[in-house]
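Researcher: Quick test of sequence recovery. Tokens follow.
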């Protein structure tokens, strides 16, 4: 099932700040807030989007008390309204970049995103400029545990899994599904008693762009600067992580 390994080709630097606890917590709190506001319920049992947000909060080791406070605050009618605009552009070397944000101030966010593209050698483009270069996919990162790998794979494939990959330690499976199969696969995992380390709808590039190590560093610098922005939730790109580039980044 590993096949084309689209996820592996771009996963290394997507979310380069994920080691930064405060940024991660801020990100999942926004997910919880949007889930409560749009789902109309502060009960995860009756709000699938909130259930997913809570699962992701647990996946980044957010304390239970923090999660409960975030849900309670999101239920407050005085909580500021959040918007989720997206931005598209190009990093140095022609790397396609798709940016998802969550913000309470649209003017601040667009100004910040535009400034980062300009300062780090990229170009902010109009909506639709790079969207077609990505496919919406569901990505589940799950522990394999002591389950029989073959049985688990078959059950997930029957539920709608399109591609399965393993981390180097073989104990973590990455399950890639079509956008429309996200719900059924999430339900199957719940039936199997598997709590995902993370579960998200992401944008996977249809094709990847390969650059020299020097040019790739420039593109990654812009991507990392975007990820540092407080209003940015996710940054997707189509830079291919070649073995040469991986080795250079590990130095």
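Model:
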């Amino acid at each position: 099932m590993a096949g084309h390994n689209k996820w592996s080709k771009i996963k290394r630097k997507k979310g380069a700040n994920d080691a930064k606890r405060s940024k991660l917590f801020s990100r999942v709190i926004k997910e919880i807030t949007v889930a409560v506001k749009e789902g109309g319920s502060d009960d995860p049992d009756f709000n699938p989007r909130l259930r997913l947000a809570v699962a992701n909060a647990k996946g980044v080791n957010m304390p239970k008390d923090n999660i409960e406070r975030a849900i309670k605050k999101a239920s407050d009618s005085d909580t500021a309204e959040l918007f989720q605009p997206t931005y598209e552009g190009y990093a140095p070397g022609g790397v396609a970049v798709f940016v998802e944000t969550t913000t309470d101030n649209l003017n601040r966010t667009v100004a910040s995103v535009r400034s980062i593209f300009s300062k780090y050698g990229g170009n902010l483009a109009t909506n639709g400029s790079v969207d077609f270069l990505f496919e919406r996919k569901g990505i589940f990162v799950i522990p394999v545990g002591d389950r029989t790998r073959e049985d688990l794979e078959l059950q997930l494939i029957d539920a709608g899994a399109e591609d399965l990959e393993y981390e180097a330690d073989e104990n973590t499976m990455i399950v890639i599904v079509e956008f429309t199969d996200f719900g059924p696969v999430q339900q199957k995992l719940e039936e199997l008693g598997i709590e995902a380390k993370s579960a998200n709808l992401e944008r996977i590039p249809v094709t990847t762009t390969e650059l020299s190590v020097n040019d790739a560093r420039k593109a990654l610098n812009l991507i990392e600067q975007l990820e540092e922005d407080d209003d940015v939730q996710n940054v997707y790109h189509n830079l291919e992580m070649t073995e040469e580039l991986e080795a250079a980044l590990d130095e």
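Residues 13-17 have pLDDT under 50 and may be disordered.
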